[in-house]
Amino acid sequence: MSPSVATIVEGHAEVESVPLLLRRIFAQLGVTSVQVARPFRIKRNRVVKSGELERAISQTIRDRDGVAGIMVLIDSDDDCPAELGVQLLERAKKTTQIPVSVVLAHREFECWLLGSKESLRGINGIAESATVPPNPESIRGAKEHLTRNMTRGRRYLAVDDQSSFTERFDLNLARQRCPSFDKCFRETERLLRAIGALT
Fold this sequence. Notes:
Layout: E1 4-9, H1 12-28, E2 35-36, E3 40-41, H2 44-47, H3 52-63, E4 67-75, H4 81-95, E5 100-105, H5 110-114, H6 142-148, H7 158-168, H8 171-177, H9 179-194
Parallel strand pairs: 1-2, 1-3, 1-4, 4-5
Helix pairs in contact: 1-7, 3-4, 8-9
């Protein structure tokens, strides 16, 4: 059985989009031997509470075969990504010996999509004239910002659009413009090294 990376996410849309994202990063790193397990979903306001992340990690390991590593990927919302990320990682390490990475999208997952918006032109209603805003991770309401860049009659709906955009957005541009996405990429690489999939 191939080793797998399990993910813990917060939203229905991320259940589809986060595995897509990780597979794209795996491919860019030349890794084909690692699977992405079905995500475990837990609401953002619960995962930060004492005991809830721990429960999610334990259940993820118990319910999925061949878990060699775990990535927790949630939105930072108004919390400092660095501070909350360290707290969650410390809790995770006390729960399991399996390698764990914790990534917080600064503000929200959609900020990463804003960071390479020109690569989404023509997809699901994104206007051909759409341009990247300055400091995409500083934007509150990234979902609404995406809607403003869609053709008349279309609005961004995470459950409909997030996975399509995740399949197509330019990873390299997002890394350049969104520090938390660059961390996501580096943490994925670190996790693959920890489980022996990269040398």
